[in-house]
């Protein structure tokens, strides 16, 4: 396992390859399709985003409510394909990482190569386990979206695999080849 500190740093990113197991520690932002749409609309209208995208990682998650004494409820990844239309726009403003599950389309792979991004994948159905790696949560934007609001999470040793590396090598293609 490789220990990666967030926000992502170019030197660390260059050493990561599709299929590498990683433990992420640092800040991630949550956002799903409704929040992605709002963020892109804000950018297209020349508005300032509620957080600086440069170097950041977005986790595609809609967590369940936290039980008493917990930071967050179950926090499993959602299917990433719903965010694919928004990735090139967000990448052009500095987004460097994404966490989710499932394959990505050709436009995302092109953005990954063009902007030097990474896509991390987590096991679907492991939300309860993943929530134990989230140590704090803070509302950032769009509270009206409830579970789809943008929040800032601090994660410690959050387990993932590199799904797409900076050359757009794809973990899912590797599985088919073996």
Strand order of the largest sheet: 2-3-4-5-7
Distance between the termini: 21 Å
Shape estimate: globular
Strand runs, count:
7
Low-confidence stretches: none
| pLDDT averaged residue by residue | 95
Biggest sheet layout: 5 strands, mixed, barrel
- Count of helices? 6
Looking at the chains present, what oligomeric state does this protein adopt? Answer: single chain
Report helical residue fraction. Answer: 25-40%
- Estimated structural class: alpha/beta
Percent of residues in beta strands? 25-35%
Q: Give the H and E element order.
A: EHEHEHEHEHEEH
Key features?
single chain, 178 residues, alpha/beta, 5-stranded mixed barrel
Please specify the SSE layout and strand pairing.
Layout: E1 2-5, H1 10-14, E2 21-30, H2 33-44, E3 57-59, H3 87-92, E4 97-100, H4 106-115, E5 118-121, H5 127-131, E6 134-141, E7 150-164, H6 171-177
Parallel strand pairs: 1-2, 2-3, 3-4, 4-5
Antiparallel strand pairs: 2-7, 5-7, 6-7
């Amino acid at each position: 396992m490789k220990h990666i500190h967030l926000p992502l740093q170019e030197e660390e990113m260059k050493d990561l390859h599709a299929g590498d197991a990683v433990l992420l520690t640092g800040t991630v932002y949550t956002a799903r399709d409704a929040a992605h749409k709002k963020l892109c609309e804000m950018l297209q209208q020349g508005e300032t985003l509620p957080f600086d995208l440069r170097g950041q990682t977005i986790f595609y998650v809609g967590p369940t409510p936290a039980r008493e004494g917990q930071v967050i409820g179950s926090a499993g990844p959602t299917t990433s394909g719903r965010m694919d239309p928004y990735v090139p726009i967000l990448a052009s403003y500095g987004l460097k990482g994404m966490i989710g599950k499932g394959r990505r389309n050709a436009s995302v792979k092109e953005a990954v190569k063009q902007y030097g991004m990474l896509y991390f994948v987590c096991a679907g159905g492991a939300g309860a386990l993943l929530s134990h790696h989230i140590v704090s949560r803070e509302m950032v934007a769009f509270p009206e979206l409830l579970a789809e609001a943008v929040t800032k999470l601090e994660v410690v040793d959050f387990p993932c695999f590199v799904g797409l590396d900076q050359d757009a090598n794809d973990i899912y293609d590797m599985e088919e080849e073996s």
